[in-house]
Each structure stands twice: as C-alpha cells, then as structure tokens.
Amino acid sequence: MGTATQVKDEALVERLQEIARDLRVTDIEMLTKAGSGHPGGTLSAADMVAALYFHKLRLKPDQPDWPDRDRFVLSKGHCIPIVYAALAKRGFFDEQQLWTLRKFGSPLQGHPDRIRCPGIEAATGSLGQGLSMAVGMAIAAQLDHQPWRVYCMVGDGESQAGQLWEAAMLGWTSTRWPRSGGTSAGTSARSTGTTSPRSWTRSTRRRTSTIAARRSSRTR
Question: Mutual orientation of helices 185-192 and 197-219 as an angle, nearest 10°?
C-alpha cells in the first residue's frame, strides 16, 4: 500500500469514527427523551451505520425513492434509532424530528415505517425476517440487471431463526443462477453448470421431505 493511499484510508477511518461518535451521542439523547429504547443494540451498530451511510451507500437524500439507490435493511428493527440519527445527518429529514422518537403520530417509531419515514426500505421488527427481504431485493436487482446493491444488518439473537438461514441459503444459491438473457432457465443452467430457480426449488423440496421423514422415523 502506497503512503498516499494509507494516509487517505486513515483519514477516512478517522472521519467515520467521528461520525459514529456523533451518532452515538444523538442516539442516547433520543432514547433519553423518548424514555425507552434499546441502547445496547443501537450503540453497537453505530460504526457500521456510519460506514454505510457516509461512505458506502449510494443515496440521494433529496430523492429518497431514486431507483438506482443502494438499499439497506435493518433486520433488527428495534435498533432503528441509530439509523434515524444517520438519516437526519445525511439530510433525509430535519434533525428536529429526531426528538419525536416513539411519540404518537411521529414517523420515527420504535420500529421502522417505510411508508412514513423517508430513507427506510423495509418495515422490520419481526426478528428473522429482514434478511429474507434483503435477499428478495438483491435477486430482483440481479434479474432486472440493475446496478444497485443491498446491505442487511442482522442481530445476534435472530440468527437462531430458521427463516434467516433459509434466506442465506437462497442468497447463496441465487449467485449461481444464470445471468444472461435470451435463453430459458433450464437451458442456461445446463450449459453453464448452474442451478436454475425452478430446479433448486425441486431439490430443496426433496431434501426437506427427506429430513422430515428421518425426523418422523426417530420419533416413533
């Protein structure tokens, strides 16, 4: 790594660390005014949220629905206040709105509301479901040949949910789907050695049936 690149990277890290500190302060002030919340989960997410919203994500705060924007899904929806702080700092809405957190009628509720709050991509909070939404978005981008990326943050507790692991399996499998157009999925799969969505579904059903049968035989 060249000296110039190293200095640039160190400056970036320092800038993001400062932003993360500001987000943490704002987060605690919000939760204190609201009188409730989840400070542990929000504070631990500050560094990643800072890196995403102030370095990685391609966004247009004045156009929240910009078609080519990157998407971020916070699967552990109860930790949304730290994201609200980042959205306000990026200019999605006035920072004064942050002090309405969890208040009746506020768009900033304890779990994200994608209809009322600009910059929110998914209404999450039912733990274990966020990754499924993110994988669906990513597959849609892949099938439509769109350049935007999808990021998802999950919590440690919800990692025990079966749905999350099923979403991870689907996400891994979708990377093997054929990307070229003009041919049927079956033909493309045979010619490229990949697995089409339809054949993957059939094989998954067979594996699921086999596992269920084994479990049933053990419980008799």
Answer: 80
Contacts 24+ apart (CB under 8 A), 181-190: 181/145
Residue 150's φ and ψ, nearest 5 degrees, are -125, 130
Q: Are 130 and 75 in contact (CB under 8 A)?
A: yes
Kindly calculate the radius of gyration of the chain based on its CA atoms and give it in whole angstroms.
Answer: 21
Task: Determine the Cα–Cα distance for residues 84 and 87; give it in Å rounded to an integer.
Answer: 5
Predicted TM-score of the model (pTM): 0.78
DSSP secondary structure letter of residue 162: H
* CATH architecture classification, 3-175: 3-Layer(aba) Sandwich (3.40)
Q: What is the rounded distance in angstroms from the CA atom of residue 177 to the CA atom of residue 196? A: 6
Count CB atoms within 10 A of the CB of residue 14: 10
pLDDT in tens, 117-130: 999 999 998 898 99
Q: Which helix (H) or strand (E) holds 115?
A: none
Which neighbouring-strand residues pair with 73? 152
